[in-house]
Design brief:
Elements (H helix, E strand, L loop, with lengths): L1 H11 L1 H7 L1 H4 L3 H7 L6 E6 L6 H8 L5 E7 L3 H11 L8 E3 L2 H6 L5 E4 L3 H13 L3 E4 L7 H13 L4 E3 L7 H11 L6 E9 L19 H5 L26 H18 L6 E7 L13 E7 L5 E7 L11 E7 L2 E5 L3 E6 L4 E6 L15 H14 L9 H20 L3 E2 L10 H4 L15
Parallel strand pairs: 1-2, 1-4, 2-3, 4-5, 5-6, 7-10
Antiparallel strand pairs: 7-11, 8-9, 8-15, 9-10, 11-12, 12-13, 13-14
Helix pairs in contact: 5-13, 8-9, 9-14, 12-14
Length: 447
């Protein structure tokens, strides 16, 4: 594992590492920051210090990244103090702790915002940041609905800012390799992809009114969402399942990743039709308010199909893994996940298997991070500097995001619908009523 991680860092950052030289590499991080490449140094802030924040420590701490972490921002006091203690294991200086993302955005010294807030904050917070002159790394799902999906792309163009979504498998070398081979015809014509996720999430408490937890700014946590009284256990994770005011269900929470890989492999854009079969199957009387099991089908031109098989609370590994993507072609099949790919011929015989090693990303575990997030973040930094191109530019990433929203809308209205392949509009009046969302007064998202 150590050898592999060193290889990744050396190869990804080789140009910078060579320029630095051995004498400088022996300096402390603070001395390094003061003398090397100050004209290219990026001041960054992280907003949202929950389960994903640990994935950003390594790429921010790397000397070759040449960044300065200015702020750790979260509406929960305990999250701020916990993140400071953890990041202090990686850097030798202390970033500022801040409760209010708006104050971070108002600081003109900040160049980059990592937006790892809850789903309802992703597009509003990212657009606020771009208006404030920041480049944005926004965690998935990058938008809460189709209207935000379009606004985020428009904002990146209007304000001329680099925006990368946290679909980090786009930066995984083994995935890049096999997708390139698929595009070059290694399995003939790729015609179908099955994106899947299986987890064994447990029972969720019912929402009951409760005191706001100590240290939590509940009003700011809600931000652009319609405000309501606090209910027990909402802020920390269960907001994912407590209605559509905050979350995007499992399709947005995890399906984003694999549906993105499926679309990339098949080289398709907007589908022409979307339909789902989805229900709440488990713990019927608990507090979970959305589907926990979904089969979604997206039909594209040229008879191509993407299926999403999402099981939130049934851990049976239907396809031999907790998550991943199967791509079927006229001459073979590919299985790919965050850690490996397997290439098989038409008869199912393994032709080639590439294992990315044991230092990759978490599968179905909460939070985590690993090499591919580090590479994704480095790609983001280097694109800001004009040295690379984004592996997941937001205009392309948000076409994958549209599939998430189509799936959720089809579930909510209880039927499938056709889609305009040119602009992504849903060709159904009932579906189009869910194109956007209502915002708390004063928090409307505009450009």
């Amino acid at each position: 594992m150590t050898t592999r991680r060193k290889f990744i860092k050396d190869t990804v950052l080789s140009g910078t590492a060579i320029a630095v030289g051995s004498s400088v590499m022996g300096m402390s991080a603070s001395s390094y920051r003061n003398i090397i490449g100050s004209n290219e140094r990026l001041n960054v802030a992280i907003a949202g210090l929950g389960r994903r924040v640990g994935a950003f420590y390594e790429p921010i701490a790397l000397k070759q990244s040449n960044v300065n972490l200015m702020y750790l921002c979260d509406v929960m006091e305990s999250q701020r103090t916990k993140a400071l203690a953890n990041v202090s294991k990686h850097i030798d200086y202390k970033p500022k702790l801040e409760n209010d993302i708006r104050k971070v955005i108002d600081d003109k010294k900040v160049d980059v915002l990592f937006n790892a807030t809850p789903d309802h904050w992703h597009t509003p917070g990212s657009i606020m940041a771009m208006k404030g002159g920041k480049h944005v790394y926004v965690e998935k799902p990058s938008s809460h609905n189709m209207n935000e999906n379009e606004l985020l792309v428009e904002a990146s163009k209007k304000f001329n800012k680099v925006v990368q979504m946290g679909n980090q498998q786009r930066s995984a070398p083994h995935t890049i390799e096999i997708i390139r081979e698929i595009h070059n015809g290694v399995i003939g014509k790729a015609y179908k992809a099955v994106a899947f996720y299986s987890n064994s999430r447990g029972e969720v408490v019912k929402q009951t009114k409760a005191p706001v937890p100590q240290g939590l700014d509940w009003e700011l946590w809600q931000g652009p969402a319609i405000h309501r009284e606090y209910t027990d256990n909402t802020w920390n994770y269960n907001w994912h399942w407590y209605g559509w005011n905050y979350g995007t269900a499992e399709a947005g929470n995890n399906g984003t990743h694999e549906m993105d890989i499926a679309r990339w492999a098949l080289q398709v854009n907007y589908p022409k039709h979307a339909r789902v079969q989805a229900q709440k199957r488990h713990f019927k009387d608990d507090g979970w308010e959305m589907y926990d099991s979904m089969q979604a089908t997206f039909s594209f031109e040229d008879e191509k199909v993407i299926e999403w098989d999402g099981k939130s609370r049934n851990g049976y590994q239907t396809y031999g893994a907790g998550r991943g993507t199967l791509i079927y072609g006229t001459e073979g099949t590919v299985f790919v996940d965050r850690g490996k790919y397997i290439l098989m011929d038409r008869g199912g015989k393994v032709v080639k298997e590439v294992n990315a090693g044991g230092a990759g990303e978490a599968g179905t575990a909460l939070g985590g991070g690993g090499d591919i997030t580090t590479q994704h973040v480095i790609n983001f930094f280097e694109t800001i500097r004009g040295k690379e191109k984004l592996n997941a530019p937001i205009d392309d990433a948000n076409i994958s995001m549209a599939m998430v929203h189509y799936a959720n809308v089809a579930y909510r209205i209880g039927k499938g619908f056709n889609i305009d392949q040119n602009n992504g509009k849903m060709l159904d009046d009932q579906a189009m009523r869910l194109w956007g969302r209502d915002y708390q007064e004063g928090w409307e998202v505009t450009l």
